[in-house]
């Protein structure tokens, strides 16, 4: 029996692995909508992510993240959904993703991640010594993305090649 493909692809992965860039490319190639968890969190709350962390802590942010993820995934239309790097930390969120979408993990080396995130000061979890924070969080999350249906190691690949690898596997 042939697998009935999901009409949603969820991109998971650590901060700076290229989820937003790849979601744009896939959306263009498949002609599907592009939904972005972090953008949607800022839209519905009317606040920047850093302000949500400052006012309500990480726990407050995670509550909104789950509500937003639910609404994005339960929508019926085809879409590429880019998630924040910590959306996978909740068991509930992981089940939601697996139930509604083909889940694709993007992996990148610590060096590559640090290079991508260091010039962007908007991430509350990377305040201070960003390189040190990346190493600590990567260690804490080393198996957090293993539940994906498909994983792409982006090392040495262009964004176009990453998108092609995903399209071929879909
Ligand atoms: C987070 C990743 C961020 C954002 C928030 C928390 C995390 O998204 O959701 O700052 O816990 O890894 P990106 O992965 O898009 O940077």
TrEMBL record:
Enzyme Commission number(s) of this protein: 2.7.1.71
Location relative to the cell: Cytoplasm
Positions annotated to bind Mg(2+): 20
Co-factor(s): Mg(2+)
Reaction(s) catalysed (UniProt annotation): shikimate + ATP = 3-phosphoshikimate + ADP + H(+)
Binding residues for ATP: 16-21, 123
Source organism, top-level taxon: Bacteria
Cofactor descriptive note: Binds 1 Mg(2+) ion per subunit.
The protein's annotated pathway: Metabolic intermediate biosynthesis; chorismate biosynthesis; chorismate from D-erythrose 4-phosphate and phosphoenolpyruvate: step 5/7
Ligand binding (substrate): 38, 62, 85, 141
Keyword terms: Amino-acid biosynthesis, Aromatic amino acid biosynthesis, ATP-binding, Cytoplasm, Kinase, Magnesium, Metal-binding, Nucleotide-binding, Transferase
Residue ranges the record marks as coiled coil: none
Alphabetized Pfam families for the sequence: SKI
Gene Ontology biological process terms in this record: amino acid biosynthetic process; aromatic amino acid family biosynthetic process; chorismate biosynthetic process
Matches recorded under HAMAP family: Shikimate_kinase (MF_00109)
Protein family: Belongs to the shikimate kinase family.
Annotated protein name in UniProt: Shikimate kinase
Source species of the chain: Paenibacillus arenilitoris
